[in-house]
């Protein structure tokens, strides 16, 4: 299939940030409208000069636009997808909604996704010695505590609202959902007492964008 004039997503199957992009596309009913290219992170394909030319930070996902521009950072890619495709907004419509969605998305990223990621990459074997070329275990353990505080924060928040940013599903839910999936993978369990967070997650897991990718 020719990928000219089409959006291309460079991703690695099973990794949490690329999964955010599939969920955003699924919400927009647009999974069939883009093509996917697998990047073999375990064999360091993301640390080649060809990949750095697309994303100097050497991370997946990356989106190539029909004009040939490259967009990295899952939030930026989600913004692009949200604006490009029809359907319910993932990033908010009014100024107030947009501000709140971005605030909550960043909290989900910082307090859960990134905290879990730093714990995984620094305080465990992570993806193995060829990828984890620098580790600081103390920093990783500190971020583990930050992740647990993040779980507690979202548990309190979700006691009084159906979705992370309020009454509507948004990209903040996607980020938190895959942050928790990453926590499972890193064997960082959600304390059973966090009933609101656990109930939210159960509800989300039946949502087609998460269950039918
Ligand atoms: N802030 C970036 C993070 C991307 C990221 O860390 N991706 C991981 C996969 S989930 C990756 O490429 N890891 C490879 C590495 O760090 O060497 C985003 O939002 O997309």
UniProtKB/TrEMBL annotation:
Domain GST C-terminal: 94-213
UniProt xrefs under InterPro entries: Glutathione-S-Trfase_C-like (IPR010987), Glutathione-S-Trfase_C_sf (IPR036282), Glutathione_S-Trfase (IPR040079), Glutathione_S-Trfase_N (IPR004045), Gtt2-like_N (IPR034345), Thioredoxin-like_sf (IPR036249)
SUPFAM superfamilies assigned: GST C-terminal domain-like, Thioredoxin-like
Residues of the GST N-terminal domain: 5-89
Keyword line: Transferase
Signal peptide: none
PROSITE patterns: GLUTAREDOXIN_2 (PS51354), GST_CTER (PS50405), GST_NTER (PS50404)
A molecular function GO annotation: transferase activity
Protein's name in the database: Glutathione S-transferase
């Amino acid at each position: 299939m020719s990928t000219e004039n089409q959006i291309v997503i460079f991703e690695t199957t099973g990794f949490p940030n690329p999964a955010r992009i599939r969920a955003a596309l699924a919400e927009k009913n647009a999974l069939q409208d883009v093509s996917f290219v697998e990047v073999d992170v375990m064999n360091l394909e993301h640390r080649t000069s060809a990949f750095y030319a697309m994303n100097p930070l050497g991370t997946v996902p990356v989106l190539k636009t029909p004009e040939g521009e490259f967009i990295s950072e899952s939030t930026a890619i989600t913004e692009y997808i949200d604006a490009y495709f029809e359907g319910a907004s993932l990033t908010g419509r009014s100024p107030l909604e947009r501000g709140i969605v971005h605030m909550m998305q960043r909290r989900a990223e910082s307090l859960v996704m990134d905290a879990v990621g730093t714990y995984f990459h620094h305080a465990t074997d992570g993806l193995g010695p060829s990828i984890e070329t620098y580790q600081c275990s103390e920093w990783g353990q500190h971020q583990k505590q930050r992740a647990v505080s993040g779980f507690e924060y979202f548990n309190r928040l979700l006691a009084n609202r159906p979705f992370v940013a309020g009454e509507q599903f948004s990209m903040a839910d996607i980020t938190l959902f895959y942050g928790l999936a990453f926590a499972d993978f890193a064997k960082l369990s959600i304390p059973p007492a966090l009933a609101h967070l656990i109930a939210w997650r159960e509800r989300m897991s039946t949502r087609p964008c998460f269950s039918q990718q």
